[in-house]
Amino acid sequence: MSDLLTASQLEERLREVGATRYHHLHPFQLRLQSGACSRGEVEAWALNRYLYQACIPQKDAIILSRMEDAQLRREWRQRIIDHDGEREGEGGIAKWLKLTDDLGLDRGAVMSGELALPATKFAVNAYMTFVRDRSLLEAVASSLTELFSPMVIATRVSGMLANYDYVTQETLAYFTARPVQAKRDSDFALDYCKTHARTPEQQRAVIAALEFKCSMLWAMLDALEHAYLYAKPWPDAFRPADQADRQAAE
Ligand SMILES: O=C(O)c1cc(C(=O)O)c2c(n1)C(=O)C(=O)c1cc(C(=O)O)[nH]c1-2
């Protein structure tokens, strides 16, 4: 008996991975959307997540360079444009910097990545390495977390707007375009994986790639929660003003 899944069974398995392992379940995400995070934690989240945003077009350029089919490249290159924009000041990365600006973070410090937690750097690096070293099919499959991002973005945006008075719709402008882009991108990637995963091994590799990506997103939030809620940040990492006050009071 073959353990080859049908395309719809494969999709079902992938959706199960998201339902049980995506970062919408992470305690830090739940605190962020419920208003329980301190201002410093919100700042630390935005600063660390900048590193992930900044790596996305680079990882998509790696994937693009591995595609032999021009039609496929035409589809994929839109992702790079979405993040980098067509010119200075446009695109997702510029919008993320609007968020960190509004939170009062120094742009140069954010962009240098120097204040990010070590685990954030390791996680982002692991994503880049994964798409470089694994098969093209696995690299494409690792983007499938975007199947689930519209739902977490909607909850996060409405929760943050309701619970933090220093956060406005303009501050969170990054997220306005993302759900539509994520749906377009993940529909395409899902279709690609369903068509190209033709053996049980390939199907298992696709599922494992999505699990890997979920674990990478989870690890970033684990690190944030540990450093800024329970313990203290790595000596060279970002230290929010409210945490400095807390430490002074201890
Ligand atoms: O806000 C989020 O929770 C979230 C999650 C993800 C994701 O699931 O990887 C992405 C994004 N946002 C996002 O904005 C984005 O551009 C993006 C690109 C990718 C990818 O792997 O190619 N994931 C995500």
From TrEMBL:
<keyword id="KW-0884">PQQ biosynthesis</keyword>
<dbReference type="InterPro" id="IPR004305">
    <property type="entry name" value="Thiaminase-2/PQQC"/>
</dbReference>
<feature type="domain" description="Thiaminase-2/PQQC">
    <location>
        <begin position="13"/>
        <end position="222"/>
    </location>
</feature>
<keyword id="KW-0560">Oxidoreductase</keyword>
<comment type="similarity">
    <text>Belongs to the PqqC family.</text>
</comment>
<comment type="function">
    <text>Ring cyclization and eight-electron oxidation of 3a-(2-amino-2-carboxyethyl)-4,5-dioxo-4,5,6,7,8,9-hexahydroquinoline-7,9-dicarboxylic-acid to PQQ.</text>
</comment>
<comment type="pathway">
    <text>Cofactor biosynthesis; pyrroloquinoline quinone biosynthesis.</text>
</comment>
<dbReference type="Pfam" id="PF03070">
    <property type="entry name" value="TENA_THI-4"/>
</dbReference>
<protein>
    <recommendedName>
        <fullName>Pyrroloquinoline-quinone synthase</fullName>
        <ecNumber>1.3.3.11</ecNumber>
    </recommendedName>
</protein>
<dbReference type="GO" id="GO:0033732">
    <property type="term" value="F:pyrroloquinoline-quinone synthase activity"/>
</dbReference>
<dbReference type="InterPro" id="IPR016084">
    <property type="entry name" value="Haem_Oase-like_multi-hlx"/>
</dbReference>
<dbReference type="InterPro" id="IPR039068">
    <property type="entry name" value="PqqC-like"/>
</dbReference>
<dbReference type="GO" id="GO:0018189">
    <property type="term" value="P:pyrroloquinoline quinone biosynthetic process"/>
</dbReference>
<dbReference type="InterPro" id="IPR011845">
    <property type="entry name" value="PqqC"/>
</dbReference>
